[in-house]
Design goal:
The complex is a heterodimer. By secondary structure, chain A is of the alpha+beta class. Chain A is built from 13 helices and eleven strands. In chain A, α1 crosses α3. The longest helix of chain A is centred in the N-terminal third of the chain and has 26 residues, at 2-27. The longest helix of chain B has 41 residues, at 484-524. The chains are: A alpha+beta, B mainly alpha. Chains A and B meet through α10, α12 and α13 of A and α11, α14, α15, α16 and α19 of B.
């Protein structure tokens, strides 16, 4: 009689254990570990616990995490995941999990292999599967053009991957940058000219020719030459290139609100072309081989002949 | 000495003084101080020729002689002074703008003759001026006017006495040296107009011979030789550079302020110091000429603009007595040198390369990826430009490895620009270019020699006809012996020679800035 009672009790207890575990998980949303389950239900032994947890995991009710060296179980809220992963096996779920963790930066295929410990061929098959199911997508990184990172299908790739406003389809838009460059420079030049004509006071002239980066940003946005919405930081990078060209100089202003405003104004170059460069020897490509009496010499120089005629 | 500089000096000397002098000079430049026997052995020239050549070089202050430890006289050449000959037209022009025609001719005399007595130089210049004035119908001038100009230039230190000679026990000249106090270089000898001492003839000759011997008039300032003080001219050019820099950066009024500040601090500044002497704002304000009409307020404003400017022309040292200001000479020179280097990079490699170059100067050291980001140039293009500049040694590469085994994948490759190194590279190129210009000019003249000779003959005939008082028709006939194509050839030759001469002078401007900057930076680098 006792034996039948036991047999009868087991399945009830088994289901009981699972619901108890789920209740525990719902009570502690941050996750429970082995210890908590054992304390709560000391009557079950390790094997029963393991079976219960495995069943919960495979039906997708529970998620397992590793914290340090301990395992933690959390309830899964996955309504969506349930739909998508139906029919997928554990390996696919694992790969999907890894890609999801990478967020919008994406993850490289080699890193997926390290994390999942799967074979290359198997991994490729899984990735192809997931791609056909439209769960993940491959995005080409702008840093290394051969590298492909995988991320979830509906996520927007991060700026560091696509390069931001200056890249369209992984191509650096140099013409776009050039156009913006020239427009900003013209605006600053115009401002300097109006300031010089308007005011007589030299300090007022100098201050009048300054333009802050936000002013230039509004001007460029109004011009409407850019299809992409540009931020003030983008304009600042363009203005920095003008500083590096030597056409514009920068200075800082501490506003009352405490943030630094960056001011720019156009400047004239210090000198006109250097004396050396006004003769062909300055830009001659073979000037090192040129000597009197040699094959290349000032007497036979072709560049000089063209320049002098 | 650098190879290109030696070549340039050789070319200049060959043109001005001939092959022999140039050969001697080149030998001395390559091998250092030598005495005559050695020179004649290597250059295969006769000893008397060498002696004459060295005489010329000493006369022009290129060569110094000294007795070495073994008691033999050795001759050493100053290559810098030789290559300064490129700058002579600039000195003459500068004297003309500052002090007028008489000064111009005086400087020209002194440059041509190297060293000269004041009285002889003044007389020659008076003669030349009077000839020119007669031709144009103006009244003659007396030599006192010229002498006054001479005195003025000595007072402002543009001319100076030559070095004093040292004699040994037997009254033989063994070497020369700079006098101990610089002030004595600028003392005018006492001079009365028109007085000339007569040399006492030797008592040993018979009386009859005495009357036959010509009485030699020796000028009253015998023994006091004068030469051009190139240091002073260089200081003037340097000041002009600073003023022009401020003119182009801000505006002309600021340039005027800087000019006055430089004039104020001229006397108090040590030569070759990085900053000028301090000046208070009241001094500056009072030194400005009244015509400019600047109020104190405007002067203050300009000073504040100049202080805040990115080139850092002047700095405010402290606020005592209304504000003490100094001019940062070294920083201005550095910015100018950098501007020349940038112009070189732009013309030679392109504007995108200039951007990369400036990014590296401003940010000191960057990796390749960062350079691409800052300069906003696509990767492939940036790589090409960067490596082009690296191949020409304008950029240097430093490897910083993360691991001990220096594996390339785990090493940072950092680019940077070393301004001094680049300045020297460009200086070499300048010397080369100036030398090439001289060679080419000589070639062009040699090419058209026939036509040029013909033109000279025609001119001589016309001049003689003028004097003989011939009429226009004859002159026209002579002029027509030069055919139109020959006239064209002459025109072309003239423009070519002008272009080449102009490029020599312009290249020399670059040489001046870079040499001055390097000199200052060497003087003022702290020795670790």
């Amino acid at each position: 009689m006792a034996a039948s009672v036991e047999i009868k009790q087991e399945p009830v207890e088994g289901v009981d254990l699972e619901t108890r575990i789920i209740n525990l998980c719902q009570q502690n949303p941050s996750g429970i570990n082995e210890e908590t389950i054992k304390d709560d239900m000391p009557q079950f032994d390790v094997k029963q616990r393991v079976t219960a947890i495995n069943r919960l995991l495979s039906t997708g009710r529970l998620e397992i995490f590793k914290s340090g060296s301990k395992l933690i179980y959390r309830i899964k809220d996955g309504q969506s995941t349930n739909n998508q992963l139906k029919g997928g096996d554990n390996q696919e779920k694992l790969v999907y999990q890894i890609i999801k963790e990478a967020g919008n930066k994406g993850i490289w295929i080699r890193d997926i292999r390290y994390k999942s410990n799967l074979l290359m061929t198997q991994l490729n098959k899984i990735l192809k599967n997931l791609e056909s199911k439209k769960l993940i997508k491959a995005v080409k990184s702008v840093a290394a053009s051969k590298k492909k990172v995988y991320m979830l299908y509906n996520l927007e790739p991060d700026r560091s991957v696509t390069g931001g406003a200056w890249y369209s389809d992984q191509d650096f838009e140099s013409e776009f940058v050039e156009v913006l460059n020239q427009q900003c420079f013209k605006y600053l030049q115009q401002k300097a000219i109006t300031a010089a004509e308007g005011k007589s006071d030299p300090v007022a002239q100098k201050n009048g020719s300054y333009a802050s980066s936000s002013e230039i940003w509004t001007f460029i946005s109004k011009l409407g030459i850019s299809k992409v919405q540009l931020a003030v930081e983008d304009i600042e990078t363009i203005l920095d290139t003008l500083v590096y060209d030597g056409k514009v100089e920068e200075s800082f202003l501490e506003a009352q609100s405490g943030d630094k405003k960056r001011l720019y104004r156009s400047i004239k170059p210090l000198i006109e072309t250097a004396g050396l460069m006004r003769m062909p020897c300055g830009s001659c490509p073979v000037v090192d081989q040129c000597r009197e009496g040699g094959v290349i010499s000032p007497i036979t120089c072709v560049y000089m002949k063209d320049w002098l005629s | 000495m650098s190879k290109c500089k030696v070549e340039l000096a050789y070319q200049i000397l060959k043109e001005l003084h001939g092959e022999v002098v140039a050969e001697i000079a080149r030998h001395l430049m390559k091998f250092g101080p030598r005495h005559i026997k050695l020179i004649s052995e290597v250059t295969q020239l006769r000893v008397d020729q060498i002696k004459k050549g060295i005489c010329i070089l000493i006369q022009h202050n290129f060569v110094k002689f000294d007795r070495n430890k073994k008691g033999v006289t050795e001759y050493a050449i100053n290559t810098d002074a030789v290559s300064l000959q490129l700058r002579y037209p600039r000195y003459i022009y500068c004297a003309k703008t500052l002090y007028g025609d008489a000064a111009e001719l005086l400087v020209e005399e002194l440059l041509q003759n190297g060293q000269s007595l004041m009285s002889i130089a003044s007389e020659r210049v008076t003669q030349r001026l009077n000839e020119a004035l007669e031709a144009t119908g103006n009244p003659k001038i007396t030599s006192s006017l010229v002498r006054d100009k001479f005195g003025l230039m000595v007072k402002t230190h543009f001319l100076r006495r030559c070095q004093t000679v040292l004699t040994d026990d037997e009254n033989r000249v063994i070497s020369s040296e700079e006098p101990k106090e610089t002030e004595s270089l600028f003392i005018l000898p006492p001079l009365e107009v028109g007085s000339k001492r007569k040399r006492n003839p030797d008592g040993s000759g018979p009386p009859s011979k005495r009357s036959k011997t010509e009485e030699m008039d020796i000028p009253p300032d015998d023994g006091v030789y004068w030469m051009v003080n190139v240091e002073r001219f260089h200081q003037y050019f340097r000041d002009q550079l600073i003023i022009n820099c401020v003119n182009s950066k801000i505006d002309k009024q600021a340039g005027e302020i800087i000019r006055n500040m430089l004039r104020l601090s001229e006397i108090k500044t040590e030569p070759h110091s990085t900053v000028s002497a301090t000046m208070t704002i009241t001094e500056i304000f009072h030194s400005l000429p009244k015509e400019l009409g600047m109020t104190k307020h405007i002067v203050e404003q300009y000073l504040s603009i100049l202080t805040e400017d990115s080139v850092d022309v002047i700095s405010k040292v402290c606020d005592s007595s209304g504000g003490l200001y100094v001019i940062n000479i070294f920083r201005v020179l550095k910015s100018l040198c950098q501007a020349h280097i940038e112009s070189f990079v732009q013309e030679r490699f392109g504007s995108k390369c200039l951007r990369i170059f400036r990014v590296l100067i401003l940010k000191k050291h960057l990796e390749q990826k960062q350079i691409e980001e800052y300069a906003m140039i696509p990767t492939k293009e940036a790589k090409e430009l960067l490596y082009n500049m690296f191949a020409e040694h304008f950029i240097t590469l430093t490897e910083i490895s993360k691991t001990v085994d220096h594996a390339p994948s785990r090493t940072y490759y950092v680019f940077r620009v070393n301004i001094d190194q680049v300045a020297r590279i460009i200086l070499e190129k300048c010397y080369k270019a100036a030398g090439n210009a001289i060679i080419r000019r000589q070639m062009e003249v040699a090419k058209h020699k026939r036509v040029l000779d013909k033109q000279e003959r025609v001119d001589a005939i016309i001049a003689s006809l003028d004097q003989a008082g011939a009429d226009e028709a004859q002159k026209e006939e002579i002029k027509e012996t030069i055919t139109p194509p020959e006239k064209e050839q002459l025109e072309r030759c003239r423009t070519t020679v002008n272009m080449l001469e102009q490029s020599e002078i312009q290249t020399d401007e670059t040489i001046f800035i870079i040499e001055t900057y390097l000199y200052y930076s060497l003087l003022n680098t702290p020795i670790k």
